[in-house]
Amino acid sequence: xxxxxxxxxxxxxxxxxxxxxxxxxxxxxxxxxxxxxxxxxxxxxxxxxxxxxxxxxxxxxxxxxxxxxxxxxxxxxxxxxxxxxxxxxxxxxxxxxxxxxxxxxxxxxxxxxxxxxxxxxxxxxxxxxxxxxxxxxxxxxxxxxxxxxxxxxxxxxxxxxxxxxxxxxxxxxxxxxxxxxxxxxxxxxxxxxxxxxxxxxxxxxxxxxxxxxxxxxxxxx
Length: 221
Known about the structure:
Layout lengths: L6 H11 L5 H18 L5 H16 L2 H6 L4 H15 L4 H18 L6 H7 L8 H17 L3 H20 L11 H24 L15
Helix pairs in contact: 1-2, 1-10, 2-3, 2-10, 3-10, 5-9, 6-9, 6-10, 8-9
Protein name: Apea-like HEPN domain-containing protein
């Protein structure tokens, strides 16, 4: 798929090839695309756009089997998903997308302390987090090194570490809708998910026979 990947292009592709999708994968992709479409309809409502895109991410990656058998920490589940995606990304579409946006929302998000978990741990008085500023600088260097090495899994993991903090702020009521004090990270987070999620889903549709896991709450008649 060339050019900007949007809800329309994803939906057209899905309709053309979905007959060959395994049932569980078809449901996963159908759900993710629906939430990408809802996110695109949000306009400048960055809070809503971020939340809808995060739902799309959950629909794409979450494997019910892992949570039922031996619960896996969410960040570990993220890395597993990123590993599968990047192994199939022969054209390095994910890496190129991050590179194109690096000087914009990606860099700005990584420079924002308000989506860095150790900052909040220190702010909340948790012992052992007094060195959050050193960790913040180390995280920036780690990202730069991973980016230089073309390590897409590590790059995505570092970016989604920040996005996960933002997700918690919004979903757990730690922010006010359309608040002036957190506009930058919400705007940048929504922009990052907005260009990554369509690529993730498109790659999944290119490889429908991969084991993408069991989606939560399957359709039961």
